[in-house]
Amino acid sequence: MYVRRSNMEDIPAMMDLYAQARVFMRENGNLNQWDESYPSRELLEKDIAFGNSYIVEDDEKNLAATFAFIKGEDPTYYGIENGAWLNHEPYGTIHRLAGNTSYHGIASGCISWCKSQIGNLRADTHEDNKIMQHLLEKNGFVRCGIIHLANGAPRIAYQFAGDSTNYRGSNEQSQQNYNQPNRSNQPMQNQNWSVREVSSGGRGFGIASMVLGIIALVLFFSFVNIPLAILAIIFGIIQLTRKAPKGMAISGIVMSTISLFLLVIFWACMFVSDARTESTDSSTYYEGSENDDASGDYYDGLYEGYQQGYKDGYYDGYYGYTPDEEFYGHTPDDSFYGYLPNDDSYNFHGKNGIYY
Prior knowledge:
alpha+beta; 8-stranded mixed β-sheet; 10 helices; elongated
């Protein structure tokens, strides 16, 4: 026998099995626990979505049983009357257990599997469900009191605290024996069967996420890293939502996230480095034009030559001398204000000028 998490494709077969269970309850005096709409398809879909729904199959993939197994606090167990829970340690809860009557001992097998998941279990059942009460007590559960469902209906509360010798003995036997299902209507006595969990989903998205994450991490310096990392994260999230191994998906998400951080850091460092290089080149240019290096000499000489040429041209035109002549006269006898004594223009100016 094999136990695995249910998926949406299993719902029609599960609904058929629950219909058989309702008929079985009525035939055995339990008329009021499950009505025709319980459990509803919506409830089964919710169980599957949260990973709390399980089915048991034989080697030929025939459905033998189904149940809900939930680890964590159950709100309906917060209050209990006419008794008390055995402890308040973390626990798992068994709900909606239904088995094909062709497989003798199938319900006890489901309970044994739940015990292997956590040693502290709780369950509840209707006061008219004598078969379930007997099943729980046979598997080491202790009657603790009365709890009430969300609609106020009372239920008998049971707890298994992990210290039952009956549990230990049946668990050891279940590991040693494996029996083929009994297809006949005759009950099988003193036989046990083991349950092994198998994955209900593939690892395809997890593998894809991990491979893309590795590539993105190797190419973290390239912008190709961005779409690779995004795909790795998406595939990883898809794998995490599936009821299948999650290790590779987590690895892919972590590596792709790291690659994105490295990409940001790498290009930030490159930008800072380029900015510093450009600043250094600009500073060197301006310093060279002002100091006594080749560039500075060139521009300084050019400026001085321009100034000297301007001066020479100006004074040549105004005083009429060549570079070899003195500043104040063309001949030693000339003076600044009268270098041509017999010049008419001088006489004119002497009579009519400002020196008259």
